[in-house]
Design a protein that fits this description.
Helix content is about 10%, strand content about 25%. A three-stranded antiparallel beta sheet has the order 1-2-3, with no helix packed on it. The longest helix is centred in the middle third of the chain and has 5 residues. The chain is elongated, with a radius of gyration of 15 Å.
């Protein structure tokens, strides 16, 4: 089993990893996230990702 994952915005270089404190995982409902849509765009740094709900109800993330 692996330890906690720490996410740092790409524009903020990590100087002292040990200074990060574990935080509870933020959980979002897909119905709230998609708001009736089948696809949303997620900006991450300089890239835009597309999160889609498939016909089978699964999620696919594409760059």
């Amino acid at each position: 089993m692996s330890g906690p994952v720490h996410i740092v915005h790409p524009s903020q270089p990590l100087k002292n990893f040990s200074a990060l404190k574990p935080q509870p995982v933020r959980t979002l409902s897909s119905s709230n996230l998609f708001e009736g849509r089948r696809e949303i765009a997620i900006e991450h740094g300089e890239f835009v990702y597309r999160l889609k709900i498939t016909r089978q109800g699964k999620l696919i993330l594409n760059k």
